[in-house]
Every structure is written in structure tokens, then in C-alpha cells.
What we know:
Number of strands: 2
Structural class: mainly alpha
Order of helices and strands: HHHEEHHHHHHH
Shape: elongated
Radius of gyration: 20 Å
Strand content: under 5%
Distance between the termini: 45 Å
Amino acid sequence: MPIQSVEPKRLYRQIAEQLRGLIEQGEFAPGSRLPAERDLARQLGVSRPSVREALIALEVEGWVEVRTGSGVYVLARLPVAGGPAAVQIAPTEWGPLELIRARRVVEGEIAALAAVQAKRRHLSAMRQAIQDMTTSANQGVMPLDGDRAFHSAIVEACDNMVLIETIHHFWDSRRGPLFERLGGYFETLPSWRAAIEEHEAIYQAIAAHDADAARTAMHRHMDNSHSRFSASWRQAKRAGSG
């Protein structure tokens, strides 16, 4: 028997595969509602954020539909060329909530280091990025470009290419279908305005060259971001996502 390589799987993928298997076995019929997120987390022995990531993956792949204010419902499957899933999630894609927690660890220290090393040009880039975010929000546009520019300016102040490439990799991962779908539910202009205020606090701490305050402000921003994406489905702005 040929030996096959063993691939470590992300937790949300393991959860999604188990739920997908139950759907295929008829445990959850088309049109039926899945157990609540908190109940699934308890039965599976995992966190609610991991369950949420799994449910988003199943929705992206066309297995379920999230109906805000109602629940998660199993969809009828139609045969398609190339396999059962309408969209395949790459095995390497990170879970968005897990990504935020990782960013908290890494970017907290980056903010602290930037507070020590930032030069005038870095502070100017951060200031401009916040202004661009504010302009976009006032125009009704999600300020993703300004957001990326702000965090890039912070890490560039550290003058460490490994950290710079790491942060860019984090941001590239944000363009994945899981993060985009989750953002489609929970990213709103009011939530972005709250995030802009958090960016301002980070900037002020770095500009004051206060490493501890910069670290704390970044941690607070990441904690709030995680909370915004972990809110009740009833708080989601709409059903479905583009």
C-alpha cells in the first residue's frame, strides 16, 4: 500500500468536514436548520469562533446558507462539474478570526517597536493613512486601502524585512473568500468609524514614543476587531454576502 503524506488541517476545516459529512449522510436534510453556533461549539468541544469560521467555509462552498436573525440552513445540492462544492477553499487559507488573534500578538510588539524607532516620514504616512480612511468612510466606501497603508507604515518603521513581509502576508490573507464573506456580514461604515478611532489612538501612542501605550492600543484594536466579527448573527447587516 503506497504511503501518502499527512497534511495537518486547520481546525475550522476539520469542523467543516465533519458537518459536511453529516449533511451528506442525511443527518441534516436540505432546508433544515443546523444547531445554534454555541450548541455546535459545545458538542464539538471547540470555540465558537472556530465554528463560525467553519460555517462561513461551508457557506462559501455552497453547502449552507446563513440567514441573519434566523439561523444556518442546509442547501439542496446540485451536481456540478469537478466535484460537489461550488467554490473550493484553499487548504492553506487561514481562518479570519484566528488571523486576527495572531495579528494581536505580532502587531502589538510591532507597534511598541515602532514607537521607539518611528521617524517623521513614518508618522506622516500613518497620519495620511488615517485621513484616507476617514475620507473613504465619509464617501460611503469601506476604507481597506487606508487600513492597509496604516499598518504598513507602522511595520516599516521597524526596519525589519521579515516583519514587513509577515504583515504583508497577513494582509494578502485578508483578501481570501472566508475573510471577505465574514466581512460582508459584519463590516459596516459605523464599525469602520470605530476602527478609525482605534487607529488614531495607536498613532498618538507611537507619535508620543510610548511603547507600552502603543502595544496596548494595538491590542485593544485587535480585540475590538475580533469582537466585531464574533457578534451575534442578529447583528449582521444583511443576509448573504457578495
